[in-house]
Every structure is written in C-alpha cells, then in structure tokens.
Amino acid sequence: GAGVSQSPRYKVTKRGQDVALRCDPISGHVSLYWYRQALGQGPEFLTYFNYEAQQDKSGLPNDRFSAERPEGSISTLTIQRTEQRDSAMYRCASSSRDTQYFGPGTRLTVL
Amino acid sequence: SQELEQSPQSLIVQEGKNLTINCTSSKTLYGLYWYKQKYGEGLIFLMMLQKGGEEKSHEKITAKLDEKKQQSSLHITASQPSHAGIYLCGADEANFGNEKLTFGTGTRLTIIP
C-alpha cells in the first residue's frame, strides 16, 4: 500500500480482556517496529522485526505483551489481560533502510 | 540508554516569524530523525541527519546536527499555520542504523495569525 496502515484505529476494551492490534507495513519493507506513546510523551520502543524474525523485544513491558510477524509482512501486537495502565497510542513503523515510516496508530483505551 | 531532551516544550509563534527547536542528547547521536505529529495522524518524517555538521533543508524547514553529534536544531523560516503540530526528535541508538529509535518528549508548536 501507499503507507503503513494500522487497525483498528480506536479500541475500547474492558480490563482483563485480550486485544490484538494489527500493522500492515509498506510493501517490501524488511523491518517493522512497534512503539507505545503516552499522552504528552514521545513514542517508546516495544519490539521490532526483520522479516519474520523478532530481533529485539526488550521494550515489551511484561509477558502480557507479545508480537508476531509470521510471514514477514503483517504484524500483530497482542496484549493479554489488559490493564488500565495499558491505555495509550500504539504506533507501528516500517523501514527498508534508514528511515522509519509510521502508521496512524491505534488508540487503546482500557476501562 | 540514550535520553533526548527537547526545548522548548511548547512554542507559540506569530505567523510569518522564524523559530528554532532544539534536541540535545546525553550520548553521541548516530542518526537523528525529525518527525512532525498532528492530532489523529501518524508521525510524518521530515529529515534525518547522520554526519557531524550536517545540514538539510526541505521547503522552509532546516535541520542541523552539530559537529559533536550531540545536539540538533530544527529551524522554521516564515512560519505558516500548516507548520503547527508536535515536533519530535528521535535518535538511533546503534551505530549501524535501522534499529530502535529513542524519542524526545516533543515540542508543541502553535502558530497564531
């Protein structure tokens, strides 16, 4: 596609529910990144992939968070047993060389 | 880990005036990225700087990276309403690129008529 797309754009869920956030990168981009952005802050790194391999997951807050990119294209970030503190904007980016291009983000609200 | 400090945190500028936003790092910057964020949209890539003393321009926006590669500035000439938004600097922590970025907290720019 023309740019990075993310779905859903908005997600409201109840505490304790699982959520899956999807990222569709720019076609042909090798690397895919997940970030989380709290209000008034810059994005914080969560994890990234080269092709289907997860290269770094050091930013995932705890084991409720996981990500996959099974075919080296679309990626899913899953949050299990959501908590109110998980509420944030979740941003995905993809890159082919030096520059990361970001999607519009998914705003997650946990009630 | 690398920390990026942006100043000012917010800026209100009259349309037509010039302005500068700064980004300072606690460590050497191997790659410094400037993005612009508008409400409801993703981060829009503006420019990337890698070499000490490097300067790049796009339309009325100029970004510079100092020789020591620890500070970058973003300068907007003759500001317009379309320049309003949040400007974020991000740094590549690794020396070979294409790695995770660390971001500053952003500078909110408001343009008044």
Protein traits:
heterodimer; A: about 110 residues; mainly beta; 7-stranded mixed beta sheet; 4-stranded antiparallel beta sheet; B: about 110 residues; 6-stranded mixed beta sheet; 11 strands
Structure, described:
The complex is a heterodimer of chains A (111) and B (113). By secondary structure, chain A is an all-beta fold. Helix content of chain A is 0%, strand content 50%. Chain A is built from no helices and 11 strands. In chain A, the strands form 2 sheets. In chain A, strands 2, 4, 5, 6, 9, 10 and 11 form a 7-stranded mixed beta sheet that branches. Chain A has a 4-stranded antiparallel beta sheet with strand order 1-3-8-7, with no helix packed on it. Chain A is globular and about 40 Å long. Chain A starts with a strand and ends with a strand. The model of chain A has no long low-confidence stretch (mean pLDDT 94). Chain B is 0% helix and 54% strand.
Structural class given helices, strands, pairing of chain B?
mainly beta
The average pLDDT of chain B is 90
How far from one another are the termini of chain B? 41 Å
Instruction: Compute the number of helices of chain A.
Output: 0
Helix percentage range of chain B: under 10%
Strand content of chain A: over 45%
- Report the C-alpha radius of gyration of chain A, rounded: 13 Å
Number of strands of chain A: 11
Count of individual helical segments of chain B: 0
- The coarse overall form of chain B would be globular
Overall average pLDDT of chain A: 94
The helix-strand sequence of chain A is EEEEEEEEEEE
> Assembly type of the shown chains?
heterodimer
Low-confidence stretches of chain B: none
Largest sheet of chain A: 7 strands, mixed
Could you say which structural class the secondary elements and strand pairing of chain A correspond to? mainly beta
How far apart the termini of chain A lie comes to 33 Å
Strand count, sense and barrel status of the largest sheet of chain B are: 6 strands, mixed
